[in-house]
Each structure stands twice: as structure tokens, then as C-alpha cells.
Amino acid sequence: ERERKVEDELYGDKGKFVTSAYKKKLEEDRKWLEAEKRKDELEKKNDVTKREGLGDFYRNLHRNAAFGGSRFAQGRA
User: Fold this and answer.
1) Over the Cα atoms of the chain, what is R_g?
2) What is the mean pLDDT of each run of 10 residues along the chain (77 residues)?
3) What are the residues whose beta carbons fall under 8 Å from the beta carbon of 69, sequence distance 6 or more?
4) What is the Cα–Cα distance from 75 to 21, expressed in whole angstroms?
């Protein structure tokens, strides 16, 4: 890290060389982070522990059973 600081002081005004493969990896990482963020927001929005009553529970159970949910849910419904 110390060497990097010295190099930054010496060559700080010059552009840094970045390969196209590294740029592609950075772009993929950014897309992955965005997808994870959307997934987390969706999970937080649909969190069943934050809902009141059992209406949402039964509606979700019926929807899962109606559209090929688990065999357990279909057998009990």
C-alpha cells in the first residue's frame, strides 16, 4: 500500500491503463450489484413477517397451489 501511495504521488497526473477485460469485469460487477439490490428490495417489499392478518398468507398459498406449487400445498388444498 505504501508503494502505491508513492506511485500515486509520482504519477498521479497521468492516466491509468485499464484493460478492456477489466472494464468488462467492472461492468458485470456493477450489473450484479444492481440485480442484488433489486432482489433485496423485492424481498423486503414482500416480507411476510411485516404483513398483518392471514389474508396474504392464504392468497399466496392458493396462488402457489394453483400454479404448480409444492405437492404438499396441492394435496392439502
Assistant:
1) 25
2) 80 79 94 95 79 75 67 49
3) 61, 63
4) 52
